[in-house]
Amino acid sequence: MTFLVRRLLLAVPVIVLVTIMVFSLLHMLPGDPATVILGQEATPDAVAALRDELGLNKPIVVQYFDWMGGVLQGNLGRSLVDRSPVSELIASRFPATLELTIGTFIVSLLIAIPAGIVSATRQGKWIDYFSTIMALGGMSIPHFWLGMMLIVFFSVQLGWLPASGYVPFSEDPLGNISAMILPIVATGLRESAVLMRMLRSSLLDVMHADYIRTAYSKGLKERAVVLGHALKNALVPVVTTSGLIVAGLLGGLVITESIFSIPGFGRLIVESIFRRDYVTVQGAILVSALMVVVVNLIVDILYAFIDPRIKMGKGAE
Q1: Which Pfam family name is an example for this entry (predicted)?
Q2: Is the pTM of this model over 0.85?
């Protein structure tokens, strides 16, 4: 487990650097949060009083350490706009993004793995060309355009699914599932194209290895060779790509959430930036950075199970 500890230790300075950069860049943006909160009609005295109340008159270094001191105690601060705890705002928005991320990833795997295997094992055949064309199309078509087309066809024309909106699963399971199908499919098709191309390329490399030829020479059937030997070793780059995809999805699917009116994590960040709600943006991006670290740690653990050459005690070099 030494390499896992080393990964965690390396993540600490990365997170600190992220907080410094985000804190500094946000405070360089034009606009005064106090003016945004009170409106343009506010008097200078009222603006000055609110700035003093919010601690905005302190030097930026002092503001940063005040904020980090609260973070280390589990306090992400309060929104500058409505004074709600940032942790509660994130907790209220994160489940929708998490559900969208999990659904997208499952759909992408269900499409990418069979398509990648068939394409690699039937290289040069019509089904390989068809899968490749579909994958290139999936990567080229913007998912927001695909999302709008799905809305037009399945919601407007057929009336099968709602065009937008979000209902928590705990309140209405059926309504939640029906509302999430279109955004999950719209995003999952693109991600499946990326994973399919990666799996196909990795499998083609593995299929030419000596141990694969040895397995065939022993009389093993193609299914046993591909699923029992080749696929496991071909999954390492796929796991890496999957980790990047999941980290990106958890960071917020702003466009997808906006098109389908999903109150997710990404929309919270964008809305807070427009409102100059620095504290909320800082807390949300800190959570995003932590999620990236966790995803990367999970990827490292998966490496050890997938590739026997990686020793848990010596690191994943």
Answers
A1: BPD_transp_1
A2: no
